[in-house]
Amino acid sequence: xxxxxxxxxxxxxxxxxxxxxxxxxxxxxxxxxxxxxxxxxxxxxxxxxxxxxxxxxxxxxxxxxxxxxxxxxxxxxxxxxxxxxxxxxxxxxxxxxxxxxxxxxxxxxxxxxxxxxxxxxxxxxxxxxxxxxxxxxxxxxxxxxxxxxxxxxxxxxxxxxxxxxxxxxxxxxxxxxxxxxxxxxxxxxxxxxxxxxxxxxxxxxxxxxxxxxxxxxxxxxxxxxxxxxxxxxxxxxxxxxxxxxxxxxxxxxxxxxxxxxxxxxxxxxxxxxxxxxxxxxxxxxxxxxxxxxxxxxxxxxxxxxxxxxxxxxxxxxxxxxxxxxxxxxxxxxxxxxxxxxxxxxxxxxxxxxxxxxxxxxxxxxxxxxxxxxxxxxxxxxxxxxxxxxxxxxxxxxxxxxxxxxxxxxxxxxxxxxxxxxxxxxxxxxxxxxxxxxxxxxxxxxxxxxxxxxxxxx
Length: 457
Prior knowledge:
Oligomer: single chain
Radius of gyration: 22 Å
Structural class: mainly alpha
Number of domains: 2
């Protein structure tokens, strides 16, 4: 019996490392640009006063929740496209790309219309003052329209990464971000001959910039990457494709929603520790958004590369590239952790001049620094598991981990006292456990797929 199609590790270490790094670094840069854009937008809106910040911030919470839920399409399509590319079935990969874009429109268009009409009642949930609520309503009505564009951009980027091209999504994101900043400045304050729209100008800037970026993304998808193109037939809805996409994507989206819910509860717990501690918590989370970038980038790269190896029925190649991705993620995040540990107070001072907030936040950052390597392992192993088609285990272990952390932090505060450091020490306790369990699960999954490949050879 010939077993060559299931031959383990037919790719060299140097070649595997190049593939991992080539795919990962544009993803890291892309996420960095998105993070910086959020900060710049906040600074621009902040010039209008506290009411503008509160109104826009409340609207963005609603938007973030909806986009997280709709990310199911992006995650599921990226995994399936990667597996089809690995199997050299470019026709199926292209059909998956077309179907994903179609279904994104089917879901997002009605949701955008409904959100437009319900923007007022939704903003009423926050109990804001009339002036702040009006700013939030106006902002949300415009940004609901951007859901259609943003979801299509997410899916287009996921498809391209699944096909092995992460550079194009990075370039599109870079262009959109630069254009967004220029338009936001002009539309908020009335510069460059543009109308002065106030806070809602930021929403219109995002809509216009992302709309133009989507045109570039669709052009790249039409031209094709590595044999995957949306050009051709198959522009009709196929429920079987949607079912497969959602089976993979929904658990991943649910994981993110539950993760966000846990952080919301954690913030409520921390709020009882005083204003300075709450402010330090918010700054600390902002710092985390940067420290997580290497783990996120290598985790997404692992999803695509493992998906391709599974499609090619060479799961050991995926295991090799996952080890490389994990090594790089741990090295980068350990280095970041060391910098955080050494410069915790100066990092806090970049966000605030309040001495009490800096003091509280610096101790919390020191604990966060120690957890960085474990988070790096967990992010990459979770991404690799998704590439094998297993999105349920990351959901289970991730949700159990974050909510266990919240519970442990609450118990520690109530029974032992302390402050922000006590809360974040819970992360340091839980992170090694969840990372180890995810690593074990991925090893087991690779063995299962390897045995299956041999049996069907």
